């Protein structure tokens, strides 16, 4: 039987960040990953805050070498109205950029770095069972590609299995999300007219209609990721094969019709539905959940990888302390800060879908100070309590929206 200090389930951003930080503290770490990398996963735009976690994990040199598209801000467009956030102009003194990149390449880079740091990454190996003893040590059963199984004994488990949600499923911890079911259809496309755009490499979110928004995420490879997000009913209006449907959807968006009319698909458009999920608890005897396994809300503000890597960074430090014999208050030191980050984003996600944020984003009378404070939230600095749009997130957003709405310039 393989014996290790920490077993990490999943080689996504949360698993690899946690693994690398724990390994640096001198512990033996093993990663078990269900798929062969590089593998596709959606989530292609990062926020500056996640670079802090990637730096602590020792991944920055390798990532810089990849020359991914630098993301210096984000633009929101509704017809002719534009709201542009630039990370240089933000309240929090943090990173001023992030990246836009295909996740297959990004995640494989992180996993390769783990291997270089001496962490074995076992691909094509699926965790199918976990037994935890009273002292928190565990025996995990792994299924290999050929169906054979073997066991790993560990002192502690980090579950970074993302949409796999291994521990919540095995231990019946699943809880319905507060978010309604939404659906996406997305693809990677060539972008022959990218250079005709005003800011060709900027990530842009288009408000397509009351219940649909679109992302365009240009990569440094020349390929652009495009995705429609809406209620499932929106997609029922379109018929045919996925590519035909996607072309019809693009043709219905004036801002994208011309840009992509001659574009080729790198892969057939894919759909995903009902991605929001959460659990009863973020930790238990001998384990901690990180990344998407804790809670995933919605893609609108690109918060997924940031919440994944920051939760992994926080969890890793607590695992190190616990393995060193210190007492850890997991509820206070892990669940509360992790939940806080999620709940700040929840305010902004809900504010996007109920229209409150539109009153702020597309107001022409908003002050620079408020904009910089909101920009820091959108940069992922959702633990900076000096920012009123973090500390009193719900009240600040509602109050500002109401104020801007009541003082807006009426166009006659
Ligand atoms: P993952 O990246 O999912 O990695 C988990 C790994 O665990 C996988 O490789 C999986 O194969 C492995 N695994 C699963 N089950 C098992 C098992 N039984 N045994 C072993 N291994 C297992 N986030 C952003 O930051 N920016 C975005 O722009 C963005 N856009 C999104 C758009 C959409 C439509 C959706 C749905 C999500 C988006 N996200 C975005 C969210 C992002 O996809 C996730 O938050 C992020 O991938 C979470 O990272 P993770 O490490 O927790 O999990």
TrEMBL record:
Pfam families: FAD_binding_3 (PF01494)
Chain ranges of the FAD-binding domain: 3-251
Gene Ontology MF terms: FAD binding
InterPro entries recorded: FAD-bd, FAD/NAD-bd_sf, Flavin-dep_Halogenase_NPB
Entry-linked Gene3D superfamilies: FAD/NAD(P)-binding domain (3.50.50.60)
PANTHER family cross-referenced by the UniProt entry: FAD-BINDING PROTEIN, SLR1998 PROTEIN
Designated name of the protein: NAD(P)/FAD-dependent oxidoreductase
Gene source species: Taibaiella lutea
Lineage: Bacteria, Pseudomonadati, Bacteroidota, Chitinophagia, Chitinophagales
